[in-house]
Write a structure and sequence with these properties.
The protein has eleven helices and eight strands. It has 290 residues and is of the alpha/beta class. The structure holds guanosine-5'-diphosphate (GDP). One of its GO terms (cellular component) is signal recognition particle.
Length: 290
């Protein structure tokens, strides 16, 4: 059964339904409260939590469990379906020539994710290249260069360059032999106008097939505004959640996915280039509710 490794308090509440074939309104209320608690502590947006729990409540009370289905499994199935409905499958990334643009605030993990994703594509038999256009953060060039060396993938950057748009243009030319171009951009500490202007200009030059928003798993309630801003400026097709090896559960990604009507592409699970996974809903949902 999906969601076997649920958090203990939710599991405890659901276990009270063991042996029951019908669920009372009281049971549903209790379960929904528990789910709300889990999602809120995982940093899922408050209004999203309310919307989800209303749907779960309504379905659990109105739908007839299929004959022979224990109440516990029935409710669990509804919870799972509602979350999958929201999160969806991982962002589609065809294993072919493409250009991917990474957006996000400084420190979210863009540069690390660019190298990780390049490594991931290289394991699929493609030839990726990372283009580093971050002229804002000191050390971004060196970091990208080192990481792409470790990932054994092509790299273009200009340590003396001052114009990120020109670097992007040049980078696409210089890495013409690669199949997958991953363009890293500069972040800022906050959503500032010059950040948005810069990424819009880069986007116009790069013309990406896919733009991914990179979010730190600990982003919390700030995810909504970021997602909205980046979606308005470059159009977000998917989300990369980083630092899932920490304690944060990454509920902000759910908010971002909802806000941009997109999906999750990759999960970052450490500082090394190999610490990357394609998103799959089951494990992520268990973690959110855990
Ligand atoms: P950028 O400013 O968005 O390019 O962010 P960086 O790629 O430089 O990442 C910021 C910091 O987070 C660096 O110290 C990275 O090593 C670290 N980092 C990035 N992704 C992960 C991850 O998945 N797990 C852990 N533990 N650290 C990460």
């Amino acid at each position: 059964m999906v969601l076997d490794d649920l958090g203990s308090s939710l599991r405890g509440t659901l276990d009270k339904l063991r042996g029951k074939s019908r669920i009372s309104e009281e049971d549903v209320e209790e379960i929904v409260k528990e789910i709300q608690r889990s999602l809120l502590s995982a940093d899922v947006d408050v209004s999203l939590v309310m919307e989800l729990s209303d749907n779960i409540k309504q379905r659990a009370l109105e739908e007839e469990p299929p004959a022979g289905t224990p109440a516990r499994d029935f409710v669990l199935r509804i919870v799972y379906e509602e979350l999958v409905d929201l999160i969806g499958e991982s962002t589609e990334l065809p294993l072919e020539e493409q250009t991917i643009l990474l957006a996000g605030l400084q420190g979210s993990g863009k540069t690390t994710s660019a190298a990780k994703m390049a490594w991931w594509f290289s394991t699929k038999g493609l030839r990726p290249a990372v283009i580093q256009t971050d002229t804002f953060r000191p050390g971004a060039y060196d970091q990208a260069k080192e990481m792409t060396e470790r990932a054994e993938v092509d790299f273009y950057g200009d340590p003396d360059g001052e114009d990120p748009v020109e670097i992007a243009r040049q980078g696409l030319e210089e890495t013409g032999e690669a199949d997958v171009h991953i363009v890293d951009t500069a972040g800022r500490h906050a959503l500032e106008d010059d950040l948005i202007d810069e990424i819009e200009e880069i986007e116009a030059v790069v013309d990406p097939d896919t733009s991914l928003l990179v979010l730190d798993a600990a982003i919390g309630q700030g995810a909504k505004e970021q997602a909205q801003q980046f979606d308005e400026s470059v159009g977000i097709d998917g989300v990369v959640i980083t630092k899932l090896d920490g304690t944060a559960k990454g509920g902000g990604a759910l908010t971002a996915v909802d806000q941009t009507d997109s999906s999750i592409a990759f999960l970052g699970t450490g500082e090394e280039v190999q610490d990357v996974e394609r998103f799959e809903p089951d494990g992520f949902i268990s973690r959110l509710l855990g």
